[in-house]
Structure formats: C-alpha cells, structure tokens
Protein 1
Amino acid sequence: MTPEQIFKIWAPPSSIWSPWAKPVMFTQLRCREEDTSEGVAPVDLTALGDAWGKGRACIVDLPGKDSMEVGLALVRQGYRPVPLYNGSPGPKEAMGLESASPLQSLSLQAVSSGRPTTAIDMSVLLEAACHATRVLMRTQIDPEAPPAFLLDASRLLGNNLIGEGVFDNRWMVFPQDFPSANFLKTHGIQSVLLIQRTRLQPQEDLAHVLLRWQEAGISIYAKDILERSSPGKITVVRPSRFKRAWYRALAVAGLRRSSAGGFGSVIPETRSAG
C-alpha cells in the first residue's frame, strides 16, 4: 500500500472528520500487504463504563503505540479514529544514501554512534499504525460515528535525549487542529471524553482547545486509564497565554518545522567561531 492509499483509509472522503486527520506521519509509512506482525492485544475499556454514545467525542492522549491501540478499541465502540500525529518519524529515507545533505549527514552520524536519532521514537507507533490500518480496511464504520482524536502524549517533551544531530520531531496541537465547538455541536457532540495516563487535567497545549469548547457549552470528562474509577467531569484549568493573538508564534519558537508539513528537522551542529 502506498502512503496515499493508507491515509485514505484513515481519512475517507465520506467522513466529516477527515479534514482534521494529519497526513504527516503517513507520508513515511510503509506497510506490507500481508500482516506478518503479532498485532496488538485488545484493549479493555470496561473501566470507562457507559461512556459511549453519538453525543460524545473522545480524545486519546497517550504515548504513541498506546494511543493507537486505544483508538482501535474505540472503533469497536462505534467511533471513527482521527489521527492527529503531526510530527515526522524522521529522515529515514536518507539512511544508506551514497550522498546526503549536511543535515542528513548529521543524522547518519548519530546512527553510527549509537545515539538516539529522533527526539520522539515513532517506530513502534508506525508498526501499530500498519496493523490498525489493516483492521480498518475490514471494518465498516458508521458514517455518523463520533470522532476519537488520537494524540501522542510524548509530543511536547519527546522520549529521547535531544542534542546536535538529533531529528527534533516534537510537536504540539493548536485550536485550529480540531473542529470548532460550533461544528461539534452542529453534529451532535455535547461532551468530550479525554483519555490519559496519570493525570486528569489536559496537557497545556490541549487545554487551549478544551477550554474553548468548555466555554462554548461542551462538557469535558476525563479518565486516567490506569485507574478503575469511571470518567469524571472536569473544569479545564486556564492555560497561560489563553486566547492571546501571539500565542501560536511564541509556542512554536522552540519547535522545528518540517518541509513536508508538520514538525521535524535535524538539530545542526554548533560550530565555534575561529
């Protein structure tokens, strides 16, 4: 399957939620035609209780592979998964090339030295995405299915050491990455369930989204997936620089944009003068 074919499975034209699916990760996703992997174990969502319904959307903010696995479990509950992963997996296509650009050479040096090559290791997420793609290919999803937006909880800090020669693919979300509250309500969404680990309040970038929805009358519920308790309604804490006109420009100042869209580029060497 080509990246375009894979992305179309995740973002079919028939779904009203497809405009928000991010293509960045899929541009470098190569899946075998036949599934020779062990797949993923079914995720038990019984702790979420009776949290389902056409009037509730979900946001899954868990570390990469876990996010994908819970998203797949939500498909079985009648949801449409909407991947919002907006970081590039890394310059894999540069590996093994006879000639490479200076920035690609830095990445190759990191490989040969055994150092981490990316700020966020997305390899396991990509493998899970291939398995999930095959599941979606043989699954009929109701055109009216509510959305389950999938995020990587490692997006802001990464999960590897960050330094020279590392491909910095950290990223963040903005209100523009999600439907507006009016759009959600027009399509019957009255509440949102946030699924996380070891926390109930959203990460700061996501708080900018959820507080807008909350102010527009959408109820926000949260669930720590490690706890047995049922989801509870929360009041989103106001994040810093909320609704400031210059918030986006300042927020991305420490991130690196990818020429292919989304976030990701190699941190260059610091050369001393003289």
Protein 2
Amino acid sequence: MIDQMPQAPVNMVMPAQANHLVLVINGVLLLAVAALMLRDGWKTRSFLPVFCLLGGAIASLMEPLFDVMICVWYPQYGQTPLYRFFNISVPYWLLPAYMWTISGQGYLMYRKFQSGISMNQLWLWYLFFYAVDLFLEGPGLMLHIYDYYGPQPMKIFGLPLWMAATNAVMFVLVGAAYRAVQEVLRGPRIWIATALVPVVVGASQISAGWPVWLAFHSGQGVAFTTAASFVTIGISVMITYLVGLYFCVPARAAVKVPAFGRVI
C-alpha cells in the first residue's frame, strides 16, 4: 500500500543567525505597518486597525493546521519555538509576519475597496500581493529556515506558485470581509473585527487550497499535484473575480442582479 503522507525533512536544523535576522526584519516591518495603520485609524477615528492587528496575531495560531496540509516544515533543532502543535515547531518570527502581512495587506485592501477601485485595479493589487509573497518567502526558503517538502510542483526560489495564489486571494478576502461588514461593526461590536481575520484566513486557504491539499496526500506524485495546482490557482482567480464583481465600483454598476435563483 502506498504511503500517502509525504515525509517531512525532520533532520533540518534552524540556522541561528538567519532565524534572528528574519525575526528582526519582520519586527521592523510590523512596527512600520502598525504605525501606518494606527495613523490611519487616528485620522478616521476608528479602532479597526487595532483589532485587525490582533486578528492577525490570533490567526498565526492556525499555522500548524496549514503546515500539515500544504507540507511545510520548520526545523525542530536550533530554535526555541513560539509554540508547538502537530509536531511542528513554529518560530517566533511567524507572529510579526502574520500581523504585518495579513493584517497590514488585508487592511490596505479594505481601504481600497472603501475608497472605490476598478476591476483592473483589483487585478493589479492581486498581482502585487502575489509578487510580494514570492519576494518575501524566497529569501527565507533559500536560507533554509523552513521548507516546502513533498511533491511540490512549480517552485520559484523554493516557493510553489500555487501558494502565492492562495495567499494573494487571502489578502483580498480580508479586505472584502471588512468592507462587507463595516456598517454593522460599530460601537461595541467592533471587537468582532478581531475574530474576522482568522475566520477569513481559514476560509480562504481551504476554499482555494483544498485541491492541492488532497493531491499532496494522495501518493500520486508531482504530475497529479501539478494538475491540482492549476485548479487551485484557478479557484484563487475565480474568487478574486467574484469579489471584484461585487465590490469594484464600475463592475458593480454594470452587473444586473436578478432575484436569487433566477437566470438573467
């Protein structure tokens, strides 16, 4: 019987200096992004940036759940982990990384939706988030502070192209979710904005990534996971398109909305 569970590189050792460098970089980026978000909150008289940042911190606890399914491994040796679940030692730098990437870029997308953007602008932001993910994860992978193992297809600098697609749509959906509920998250209900981030993070990763997750744990090899990767990228693009139809101003104005269940 084929072993359907890819074997993690359990003997990896965390490069100490690289680990510290990544922690410092993510810490500095978090301070910069948090300052910009809090400044915007002060100007708009809103506590949303605070709860958005807290939501990103809580979402970081979901990392081992994703790691098991997408085949990501952090070295168990050479580091004191932030926490450890599913035999996965999650490093300290992942906490600030979640906060500035997911909370920061999600909040940015929310403000773009709020001010009004076109469908073309949405696609440019999607491609921007995609490129940022490649740029940010590539150096860490080349420094061997973590690894995408198993039958991973289509890697650039060690990062599978499908992963950048699920992350890009995640930032779009965080912004869209805040835009969708902004009228009701007022007063005491604003704290719900904290819970919204991990909910959307989980929903976006599962909704776009499930074909690849199943393929990785099928024992069928790279050909099968490559095909699944194209499906995952397609789902990511489809979700972004649907978000644009609803939230992008010109697209929203041009779409006739019939009664639910009717055909235009």
